[in-house]
Every structure is written in C-alpha cells, then in structure tokens.
Design a protein that fits this description.
This protein is of the alpha/beta class. Among the domains are: 170 residues, Rossmann fold, CATH 3.40.50; 46 residues, no CATH class; 98 residues, 2-Layer Sandwich (GMP Synthetase, Chain A, domain 3). It contains 16 helices and 25 strands. A nine-stranded mixed β-sheet has the order 2-1-11-10-12-13-14-15-16, with helices on both faces. Strands 7-6-5-3-4-8-9 form a seven-stranded mixed β-sheet, with helices on both faces. A hairpin with a 7-residue loop joins strand 8 and strand 9. The radius of gyration is 23 Å and the shape is globular. The chain starts with 11 loop residues before the first helix and ends in a 9-residue tail after the last helix. The mean pLDDT is 95. Bound molecules: adenosine monophosphate (AMP). The site of adenosine monophosphate (AMP) has 19 residues, from strand 14, strand 19 and strand 20.
Length: 541
C-alpha cells in the first residue's frame, strides 16, 4: 500500500511565511551597541528577509547552494539573514566572531562564501581577515551601531532596498543545505557541519515539545546563546515558527544588562551556557531584588549545569532546564526533566535529576560504547563513548573525507563525550575524550596550544589540560618542561603565544615540571595531569 500523504518538502521558508501571516505584530527586540532598543515585528522580518533574498539573487547573482556568510551579533537583522539567505536558495554560514582572523579566513575559504554580511562593529576583525584570503567575498555592511556605513563599503539597507512581495522562492528539495556552522577541531582547523531544510524544520518542531524547550506563542524569549554558535540552539527558527516574541541582547552580555532585559521585556524563556547562568546568579545574589513578570525557564547546555546552580537560580524564579547537544546535533540531543514519578523526591533530589544531561529527544537515538566496541549496559554506572543518531545529526563534515573516528562504521556520530545511561534512559556526561577546553561556552584546542608552546626555544615539551574557573567553567593550564639551563616564565610563554591566538584563548596558568607523564607507547597521559592539577583554580581575571 502507498501512503496517501502529500509529499510537501520541509522548508524554513514555510516558518517565515507562517510568522509573517499569523504573528505579524509580534515583536522582535534588539539591543544596539549604544544600549538603545530597536523594535520590529515578524511582519517586518518577513518583508525584509524576502527583500534580502531577492537582492541576493538579482543584485549579487547568488545561485542555489552558494554560501553566504554572516559576521554578526544577535539582533533582528541577523534573524533576517537566518531566513533571507535560505530563501534565496543559498546556505547561511554563521561565522563565529570570537575566532582568530586566521580561523575566520579558514572557515570563509572552507565554505566558499560568495558574500558576507558584516556588522559595522565587526569591521576591525574583518579587515584583519581580508589580507589572509585568496578570494574575498562581496561585503555588505549592516549599520548595527546606527552610524553611517564607512566609506567604501556597501550598505545593507541600500542592498536590500526595494519591494519583494512578488519574490518567488526557488524550488527546493528538503534535503538541500540551509545553513552551515563550523565547530572546533581537536587538531587542525574548524570543521563544517551543514544542516538541511528538513533537519532544521524537524529540529524546530521537536524542540517546541513541552518536555523539551516548550517554546510557544505565549513566550517572550531572550536569545543569549550566540547566533554564530550552533544556530543559537535553533531558537531563531523555532521561536519564529510559533510566533514567540524574541529579544536579542546584541553585544551586551553582562549580568545586569541581561537581567534588565529579563525584567523590562517580561521574559519567560531564555537560553545560555552555565557561565552566563553563573553571572546572572551572582548579580541576583548581590541584589537589588529584580521583579520578573513570572517564572522564567532557562535552557542551559554547552557545559554541565551543576546542582548548586540549578538550586541557586530556582530561588530567584529562574528554572534551569538542562540540555546536552553539539553543533553536530543541530544542537538538541537530550533534555533533563522530572517525570511524574519524581514528584515524591524533595527539591534537592529533583535538582539532581535535573542536573543529568537527560533523556534523548524524540527521533534521537543514543548508545554508549566501550573501548572494545561493545555496547555498555544502561545501568547508570558503566561509562563509554556516547554515540548518537537521528535526522538532525550530521553524518560527516564539509570537505572532509569519511572518518571512522567521527562517524562509526554503522553510521552513528561519535561524540567524544563519555557518558552513562541509567535504566530509564537518562544520560549523564562523565568525561570528555576530545582534547578541547570549553571556556565560557567556546572551545580552545589544547593540541593547538601545545604545539605552539613547544615551538618556544626554551621549552622541551608541554601539555595543556583544562582546569576549573569559577566564571569561565574551564581554562587552559600549560604544563611545561624547560630545556636544561633555561629559566623561561609563564609570562614569557604567554607573550610568545599572543600573536597566534585570540586573546581569550591565551592561557593565564602555567606549571613547570620535570617530565610530562607518558604511557608505555609514549603518549602524554593527560588524565594523569588532570588528576595532578585537579584542585588548581585558574587565575584568569
Ligand atoms: P558545541 O558543538 O560547541 O556546542 O559543543 C558540544 C560539546 O559541548 C559536547 O560534545 C559536550 O562535550 C559539551 N556539552 C554540551 N552540552 C553539555 C552538557 N549539558 N553537559 C556537559 N557537556 C556538554
């Protein structure tokens, strides 16, 4: 028997049209660099996204499948790009504005970006990227600061000007690429993950389930997670789909600024990494008291949310919902939520359940695999590598050959996270095998740092491991062995590294030892170093 259902391709264009038709007056609010608030609506976002699409096709000659990049903060014009670029049949490539110029140049070349939309306030970074590029994409500048666009640059407003009500979306297959995001590589350069219309729409639909993100038309959503990292957890798509009011903080990420928006814009749902939650908690604890319109749900992921944070924010009416995911998983993988049977637990015990990384989302399968390749039991104690599979999980990387270290022979994504799963399917991240440090939600490659430190003429060998930091969660510690007769200091190494890394990636902590512990095969024993320096707290200010 054949299904009688229509074969309508899934497309993000349908989400934009829905918001424009049914939620035309719902607000989208953005904070500008001068802290003033810019207010627009989904009606306007739809109109301008279509104008952008038409301009890309007719003025810039963008063809289906071309990559068009953004180098932008979170704001309404970036939301227009989220929809307008795919509406041109092109692929939205969100470039991480915290990368070094070298890495920005690498990702722009890797994607083959034909055009890039840059916030005027990001031009200083962009101008350091241009000399590193063999092929420079067309540049369109968005006057985010409110100042005129600098001479010699094409103005975004002029570029999109005109009427696009007659614009017809290009025919698309639901498996066509819609967006692309680069994620840090342990060694070497960032790796591109490419999402499809189908994966993005399914992800948006699933994320709105009430046990997951629960996004609805009644929500006022503060999108703190950057739109250049894992699609801001795809909230721009899902909130637009359901017509939730969206509020963007622009570049202002300090705790008091975020709390002002939570109060003033009557926020009911927000999302961020634990570093942001901690900052918010500290400001709340210091007072004065804040008056929210009601309880606030806060989606937290990117790093583990500890029980103390969950309990602390509960006391101020901000209720953490802990999620696990990756750039590779769009990013929704699992969410932790209490079930009816947990109602008998006291608040502390419930917080422990909420601090797990949680239950796999519908359509996402999970398994844990031991070192011999066998599946581990779901007993809550046996740990192994977490592997996942599903319709919004990547099956490979852009421009890279298949790699069994990343995708298993039977087609599961190898996450590099070490996890346990309990008998009812709740997952807990126990460790990480990937050689990366997550500082304030963004990655630093320990291997890249090690290679650079070992280039110093006074260093014999060096390893880099993560140590704890009360604000940034993790920071890099350089453990180095000096060459005989050399008295190099941490400050010397820091200066030596400075030209090659973004400032926030530079280590502030250094330890000098006699020899790096090694395995019988000569590999650095990082876990041994992590254990040795387990009590060390980073001195990064
Ligand atoms: P990214 O692709 O940058 O979003 O990073 C994904 C990685 O962040 C995961 O593979 C984990 O190592 C880590 N991560 C994400 N969410 C959590 C979480 N809730 N708890 C612990 N680690 C997490």
């Amino acid at each position: 028997m054949q299904s009688t259902m229509m074969r309508v391709p899934l497309s993000t264009n349908a989400l934009l049209e829905r918001a424009g038709r049914y939620f035309a007056t719902r607000e989208v609010v953005s904070r500008r660099p001068d802290k003033s608030l810019h207010r627009t609506t989904y009606g306007d976002i739809r109109r301008r996204a279509r104008q952008l699409a038409k301009a890309l096709v007719e003025r810039a000659g963008i063809r289906p499948g071309d990559a068009v990049a953004t180098l932008q903060w979170n704001h309404a014009a970036h939301l227009e790009c989220y929809f307008g670029i795919p509406a041109a049949g092109a692929v939205l490539h969100t470039v991480n504005l915290r990368l070094s110029p070298e890495d920005v140049a690498y990702v722009v070349a890797d994607a083959g970006d034909r055009l890039i939309i840059v916030d005027d306030v990001m031009l200083p970074l962009w101008e350091r990227v241009v000399p590193l590029l063999e092929v420079v994409p067309r540049v369109v500048v968005h006057a985010f600061s409110g100042q005129p666009v600098p001479a010699g640059y094409e103005d975004y407003e002029t570029f999109i000007a005109g009427n696009a009500e007659d614009y017809v979306y290009p025919a698309q297959d639901e498996n066509d690429a819609v967006a692309m995001c680069h994620t840090s590589g342990t060694t070497g350069r960032p790796k591109g993950v490419v999402y499809s219309h189908r994966s993005m729409v399914l992800h948006a639909l699933a994320s709105c389930a009430s046990d997951l993100f629960g996004t609805s038309a009644s929500d006022n959503v503060l999108v703190i997670t950057p739109m250049f990292h894992a699609n801001a957890w795809a909230m721009p798509y899902s909130a637009t789909m359901v017509g939730a009011k969206m509020v963007f903080p622009g570049p202002h990420m300090a705790g008091p600024d975020l709390l002002d928006l939570m109060e003033g814009e009557r926020i009911s749902l927000t999302l961020g990494v634990p570093t942001i939650c901690n900052m918010i908690l500290q400001v709340l604890q210091a007072g004065p008291a804040r008056t929210f319109a009601g309880p606030i749900r806060m989606l937290v992921g990117g790093a583990a949310a500890p029980v103390s944070l969950i309990r602390g924010l509960d006391g101020f009416g901000i209720h953490i919902r802990h999620a696990w995911g990756m750039t590779e998983t769009s990013p929704l993988g699992s969410v932790s939520y209490t079930r009816p049977e947990d109602a008998v637990l006291d608040a502390e015990e419930q917080a422990k359940v909420r601090a797990l990384q949680g239950t796999a989302s519908p359509m996402v399968e999970m398994r844990i695999i031991d070192e011999a390749g066998a599946e581990c039991p779901w007993d809550g104690t046996t740990s192994g590598e977490l592997q996942v599979r599903g319709p919004w999980i990547t099956g490979g990387y852009h421009n890279l050959p298949p790699d069994p270290e990343k995708i298993s022979a039977d087609g599961w994504l190898r996450t590099g996270d070490v996890a346990t799963i309990d008998p009812i399917g709740r997952m807990r991240i126990a460790d990480r095998t990937k050689d990366l440090i997550k500082s304030g939600g963004e990655w630093i490659s320990s291997v890249e740092l090690e290679n650079a430190v070992m280039g110093h003429p006074a260093i014999a060998e060096a390893a880099v491991v993560a140590i704890a930091h009360p604000k940034w969660d993790e920071r890099p510690l350089v453990v180095a062995v000096r060459k005989p007769g050399c008295d190099v200091t941490g400050d010397d190494i820091r200066q030596y590294l400075a030209p090659h890394f973004a400032r926030w990636q530079l280590p502030d902590d250094y330890a000098f030892i006699d020899a790096i512990p090694r395995s019988s095969t000569g590999k650095f024993l990082k876990h041994e170093l992590r254990r040795q320096f387990a009590d060390m707290i980073s001195r990064t200010p």
